[in-house]
Amino acid sequence: MGFERFGTVSFTSKSKVDQFVDLLDQGRVSGTRCRKCGKSFFPPRADCFTCLSADMEWFEITGTGQLISYSTLIYAPTGFEQDLPYTIGLVQFSKDLKLFGRLSQEIKGEKMKVEMKLRATPIKLPNGRVSYEFREA
Ligand SMILES: [Zn+2]
């Protein structure tokens, strides 16, 4: 299974990191880590841009991260109009691991603030598609 089932709009159907979608289906939000130098990547990469190794392993994004920045969209790219308004954010999970994604619609108004604790959570979208979002920890 490839990326044709990922997210609201898929921009590609096949990639070297297709397993990301299967892992989401199994309930795991995952990144890749370089076995040679230890650098972690999210979105997952098949090759390490630090040491150029292709020897990568999957790891699950567990625990809580801290919201660094966020923005609520009132205009959206093509294909995402029906989801408006929605909030995107950058969440720091460890010193070298930041994730970008959507915040749950359940986090509203004053609850939303920088430094709040969030979890990366797999979600099922209509038509059998899968994605992830950040939910309150
Ligand atoms: Zn590396």
Helix and strand element order: HEEEEEEEE
- Radius of gyration of CA atoms, rounded to a whole number: 15 Å
Largest sheet: 5 strands, antiparallel
With strands numbered from the N-terminus, the spatial order across the biggest sheet is 6-5-4-7-8
Helical amount: under 10%
First and last CA, distance: 30 Å
Q: What is the number of helical segments per DSSP (H or I, 4+ residues)? A: 1
Number of domains: 1
Oligomer status: single chain
- Per the principal axes of the C-alpha atoms, what is the gross shape? globular
Beta strand %: 35-45%
- Structural class estimated from helices and strands: mainly beta
Jot down its keywords:
137 residues; five-stranded antiparallel sheet; mainly beta; binds zinc ion; single chain
Summarize the structure.
The protein is mainly beta and 137 residues long. 5% of the residues lie in helices and 37% in strands. A hairpin with a 2-residue loop joins strand 5 (86-94) and strand 6 (97-102).
Write the layout of secondary structure elements.
Blueprint: H1 19-25, E1 30-34, E2 40-41, E3 56-60, E4 65-73, E5 86-94, E6 97-102, E7 117-124, E8 130-136
Antiparallel strand pairs: 1-2, 1-3, 4-5, 4-7, 5-6, 7-8
Structure, described:
The protein has 137 residues and is mainly beta. The chain has one domain (3-136). Helices cover 5% and strands 37% of the residues. The chain contains 1 helix and 8 strands; from the N terminus they run αββββββββ. The chain has one helix at 19-25, and strands at residues 30-34, 40-41, 56-60, 65-73, 86-94, 97-102, 117-124, 130-136. The strands form 2 sheets. It has a 5-stranded antiparallel β-sheet. It has a 3-stranded antiparallel β-sheet with strand order 2-1-3. The protein is globular, with a radius of gyration of 15 Å. The model has no long low-confidence stretch (mean pLDDT 93). Zinc ion (ZN) is lined by residues 34, 36-37, 39, 48, 50-51, 53.
